[in-house]
Automatic annotation (TrEMBL):
<feature type="transmembrane region" description="Helical">
    <location>
        <begin position="12"/>
        <end position="33"/>
    </location>
</feature>
<dbReference type="Pfam" id="PF00528">
    <property type="entry name" value="BPD_transp_1"/>
</dbReference>
<dbReference type="GO" id="GO:0005886">
    <property type="term" value="C:plasma membrane"/>
</dbReference>
<protein>
    <recommendedName>
        <fullName>Phosphate transport system permease protein</fullName>
    </recommendedName>
</protein>
<dbReference type="InterPro" id="IPR000515">
    <property type="entry name" value="MetI-like"/>
</dbReference>
<feature type="transmembrane region" description="Helical">
    <location>
        <begin position="68"/>
        <end position="93"/>
    </location>
</feature>
<keyword id="KW-1003">Cell membrane</keyword>
<dbReference type="InterPro" id="IPR051124">
    <property type="entry name" value="Phosphate_Transport_Permease"/>
</dbReference>
<comment type="similarity">
    <text>Belongs to the binding-protein-dependent transport system permease family. CysTW subfamily.</text>
</comment>
<feature type="transmembrane region" description="Helical">
    <location>
        <begin position="259"/>
        <end position="283"/>
    </location>
</feature>
<keyword id="KW-1133">Transmembrane helix</keyword>
<keyword id="KW-0813">Transport</keyword>
<dbReference type="GO" id="GO:0005315">
    <property type="term" value="F:phosphate transmembrane transporter activity"/>
</dbReference>
<dbReference type="InterPro" id="IPR011864">
    <property type="entry name" value="Phosphate_PstC"/>
</dbReference>
<feature type="domain" description="ABC transmembrane type-1">
    <location>
        <begin position="69"/>
        <end position="280"/>
    </location>
</feature>
<dbReference type="InterPro" id="IPR035906">
    <property type="entry name" value="MetI-like_sf"/>
</dbReference>
<keyword id="KW-0472">Membrane</keyword>
């Protein structure tokens, strides 16, 4: 009985913290709704979602967000395409192949790279990668979707690799030993036993990487080019939602249609993140079924 009573204080503390977190999230959602929905009095949802022109400061403003949404999807998708396979591969290497002493050095270094400041990466994209791209690829500007995607890929790589490693290390040793006892090779044990066993954790690692790329601001603000157009190639400049919010919010009058439109972009990003979470939950449910 004493142990049960002693558990009440930690349980109450954990419950309080959890409820506080939920309250904060609900407050953020309510605030975003309050500040973003007034834009619908000045334009329609269809015009914003399908509009091609983003000129919010004109006398007759245009709030077409399709180029900005396309920019966010393009940069996030391209960075994920480049970084997720490499990140998962690195996680598999550190967890299943890397020798113990090398892992002790490599794993902390990999995790430390996850804290690399995004503004430094953006600066490198501006002063190093952009001029190199402009010269080597004969482009009008090196600040483009490819530049920003490469930098975002570098940013999310340590997160994906480290969490993949943690998921694979959580696979019980008995499961691996049983696979070897049945005559499976290391390759078969990794890809037919361990990876399927840890797939939920690997999927969550990829999800976290995608969400970080989707919400990143400084890298895309500095390296993506800032052009509110729908790109025709990966070397075209783009203006993702996050960079538009960061670049324009400071000079936008509070309460103006432009102000509410920027908050509506934040609402779009929030719903996009929630949608990715729901997809992962759906996949987990199908796997359990």
């Amino acid at each position: 009985m004493g142990e049960i009573r002693g558990d009440r204080v930690p349980r109450a503390a954990i419950g309080t913290v959890a409820m506080a977190g939920i309250a904060v999230m609900l407050s953020i959602v309510v605030f975003l709704l309050k500040e973003s929905l007034p834009i619908l009095a000045h334009t329609t949802l269809k015009d914003m979602a399908l509009g091609m022109l983003w000129y919010p400061a004109r006398d007759e403003p245009s709030f077409g967000m399709l180029p900005l949404i396309t920019g966010s999807i393009g940069v996030t998708g391209l960075s994920a395409l480049m970084a997720l396979p490499v990140g998962v591969g690195l996680g598999i290497f550190t967890a299943m192949v890397c020798p113990g002493k090398l892992r002790e050095l490599f794993k902390p270094l990999l995790e430390a790279l996850g804290f690399f400041p995004s503004v430094v990466l953006g600066f490198l994209g501006m002063v190093v990668i952009a001029p190199w791209m402009q010269e080597r690829l004969e482009l009008l500007s090196g600040l483009n979707m490819l530049n920003a995607s490469m930098l975002l890929g570098v940013m999310i790589l340590p997160t994906v690799a480290s969490l993949t490693d943690d998921s694979l290390m959580a696979v019980p040793k008995d499961v691996r030993d049983a696979s070897y006892a049945l005559g499976a090779t290391r390759h078969e044990t990794i890809f037919k036993v361990c990876v399927p066993y840890a797939w939920r954790g690997i999927a969550q690692a990829c999800l976290l990487g995608i969400m970080r790329a989707l919400g990143e601001t400084m890298v895309v603000l500095m390296a993506a080019g800032g052009a509110a157009i729908i790109p025709e190639s990966i070397t075209d400049p783009v203006r993702p939602l996050t960079s538009a919010i960061a670049a324009e919010m400071g000079e936008t009058p509070v309460g103006s249609p432009h102000y509410h439109a920027l908050f509506f972009m934040g609402l779009i990003l929030l719903f996009a993140t929630m949608g990715i979470n729901f997809i992962i939950l759906w996949l987990e449910g199908r796997r359990r079924g």
